[in-house]
């Protein structure tokens, strides 16, 4: 007999296992994010964590922020703008998406500059390389030869 695993994610009471299963985020990462203040939970009388449905959205936002390369501190600042215990609105998502697009473009621009700087030189070798190349004209002259 198949167990019913459906759950209304808008209601409080998701266990850490349910959150991990539905989000694809490991339980240890969920506990870590909670310790960092990025998500929150309530506790049962037995001290077990119970999460509200907004945690699913926050975990998705954390993943999106990390994919762009934001630090956890930056992720925390982005999530701090959200109302606690509520799922983000479309406006919240759009504001975060705009910030992530700007951050992604900035990183692309920085990496493009690095690629330009690493492009093959169009000028002759630097003097130091030429000096070393001419120092040992034959293998017999080379100290290792």
Please, could you describe this protein's structure?
This protein is mainly α and 145 residues long. Helices cover 54% and strands 3% of the residues. The protein has helices at residues 16-23, 27-35, 54-68, 72-80, 90-117, 127-135, and strands at residues 42-43, 49-50. A two-stranded antiparallel sheet has the order 1-2. α3 runs parallel beside α5. The longest helix is centred in the C-terminal third of the chain and has 28 residues, at 90-117.
- How helical, in percent, are the residues? 40-55%
Number of strands: 2
The backbone outline, from C-alpha atoms, is elongated
Radius of gyration: 26 Å
- Following the backbone from N to C, one meets helices and strands in this order, namely HHEEHHHH
Strand content: under 5%
Overall pLDDT, averaged?
A: 80
The CA-CA distance between the termini, in Å, is 77 Å
Q: Which oligomeric state applies?
A: single chain
Number of helices: 6
Spans of at least 5 consecutive residues with low confidence? 1-5
- In spatial order, strands of the major sheet run 1-2
Structural class: mainly alpha
